[in-house]
Amino acid sequence: MLSIKNLQVSVEEKPILKGLNLEVKPGEIHAIMGPNGSGKSTLAHVLSGREGYSVDAGSAQYKGLDLLDMAPEIRAREGMFLAFQYPIEIPGVNNTSFLKKALNEIRKHRGEEELDAIDFLSLIKKQMKLVEMKEELLKRPVNQGFSGGEKKRNEILQMAVLNPTLAILDETDSGLDIDALRIVAGGVNKLRSADNSFVVITHYQRLLDYIVPDFVHVLSNGQIIKSGTKELALELEERGYDWLLEEAESKA
Amino acid sequence: MIDKNNKIAQNNDENIAMSDEQQTIQNITDQDYKYGFVTDIEMEEFPKGLDENIVIMISAKKNEPEFMTEWRLKAYRHWRKQKEPKWPKLEYSEVEYEDLYYYAAPKKDGPKSLDEVDPELLKTFDKLGVPLEERELLAGVAVDAVIDSVSVATTFKGKLGELGIIFCPISEAIREHPDLVKKYLGTVVPYTDNFYATLNSAVFSDGSFVYIPPGVRCPMELSSYFRINASKTGQFERTLIVADKGSYVSYLEGCTAPMRDENQLHAAVVELIALDDAEIKYSTVQNWYAGNKEGVGGIFNFVTKRGLCSGKNSKISWTQVETGSAITWKYPSCILKGDNSVGEFYSVALTNNYQQADTGTKMIHQGKNTRSLIISKGISAGKSNNAYRGLVKVNSKSENARNYSQCDSLLIGDQCGAHTYPYLEIENPTAQVEHEATTSKVSEDQIFYLNQRGISTEDAVGMIVSGYAREVFQQLPMEFAVEAQALMSVSLEGSVG
Ligand SMILES: Nc1ncnc2c1ncn2[C@@H]1O[C@H](COP(=O)(O)OP(=O)(O)OP(=O)(O)O)[C@@H](O)[C@H]1O
Ligand SMILES: [Mg+2]
Q1: Domain segments of chain B: what residues?
Q2: Fewer CB atoms inside 10 Å of the end CB: C or N, chain B?
């Protein structure tokens, strides 16, 4: 599904990712944890094709394609989805028509027929239940004036409608109340299948009670310094990152 | 493109039986040929340049009554004494007035077939889905007659006639309804008004005339689009719309497909008059050919549009979506003379490449309790320049006048410019005037967010821009609004990334 080898990325000459390796197989859920500023969002952005990053070395393959060579919209149409840490507001653009356009772009790319307004509406209504989102939010401009939690639910709704093969969730749990957390996690679990994969970036072990990962990685200073199973998250919760950082340093 | 048949079907609540309708089409088609505004495409050449003889010939060619010839001549003599205005924000090479043809330009100047037309223009037609048979016409290829457009346009007439509504070419109105024309023509935009309006008054070729009788609500959107296609009203268009007491009309001008014309200078005049309790809604989607990417070959569009709310409780609203022309100079305005009258101006002006636009509005408050609203959304991309120039004037006798103006600018890229010049002239202390202005940029974050959902950069910019201009698009009739949004994307192509 996703194979990242020795990825080195810098922003304005400043190295941020410093040789990162990651293998994600179909059906797997990977959690990425790590201190603030360690490069988690940078990884998510580079994988989804955001401008402003320079890839200095390494490679990333997605479904056997050279990911870093593709335009961001093509990555999206190929089934890659990023739930943004800070979802963007687009004034005046209706949430529903935006999402319909997005879905139809993806369907066109796959050679499927575009959905008309009626079919789309029944799909979106169904998926809204999954994330228990207020219908009123569909009529509003994309994310505009949404509360922090509403924005995050809107991301998950989009994910549910677009049904990606690889979804990267960048701190989707931050800013969610306990109920919302459960709902969002429930959404992810419903979408989970043997064919699709998730990369879940989070600071909190709590989320991983709901979305049980196959692997947990710790990203620090642009590298994955430790990988393990869900028990690693529990250990981090208890002990923090310091012991790992020390361990990594002594190895270096 | 507007689906013409559809539009008529939608607007016609009381269905006319199909056969009747076809009969009407047939009748009126025949009639129009009689009046010859289609066959005029084949017209003889007038010499270049302008003098009194040409003015007289134009008037004679149209079989105009004497008052019209006199009026044209007065305008011509006045024009001779005028100098072309210079506008600080517009730059263009001088128009050689003695080098223009003031009656239809000879056919041979235009492209002979679509093969000779700017391929970019043809691509745009593709994207907007312009039907093949209309492309030649829009691209300015000489065509003999366009029976389709004429027949569709004229389905209106039978239905409208029953209500006493007059909707016809102004040349026809001058002959058939001289009293109405004499009473209203030039009352809002006098022939002395400004350089371009004066020139227009002397030589105007054709345009639309609308009269709505007292108490009548016009049951469909009136559109000039069909007629312009058929008759090629050319560079000096003149429109006069009169809404008598208690009547209502919504009028659409233009079309979203870029129209090409060998006439570089366009100087149209539009006059609106709303009597007591009447309302006129005038919507324009204007997309004249803007020239190629280097700015060559575009149209100069100098338009005078003004509405007079002459009666109490009358209302005039202008909605315009401007994306075309190399140079646009236009200020649809309202004179709020009647007490409690209302003027509105909703505008989206988009400029790209080397386009220049200087647009805005004037709201002149004269009556008591008059209100005006200005929503202006400028969008600049490429190396273009977009200026908003607005005047709110409250006369000393205008008690309790109110105005709210909002002028927003959106920049795409960093080589374009946006300028806002709000002018206020308040002579009455009871006036309440509010002005808000913002400038924003299309952010990379927004584009990336949409990209990440599978939407191309071009579409993303189109969506963002349409969202920004939503308040104005909402004022447009439904099908026009949808087209206007498609137009945004097409017009902004290549401006990002
Ligand atoms: N455009 C930029 N210009 C300069 N520095 C940047 C830029 N983008 C990211 N950085 C820096 O790169 C580092 C990694 O940032 P990133 O957002 O990837 O961290 P993160 O792991 O997601 O942190 P958090 O947990 O706080 O979300 C930070 O030090 C950040 O300041
Ligand atoms: Mg982050």
Answers
A1: 50-492
A2: C
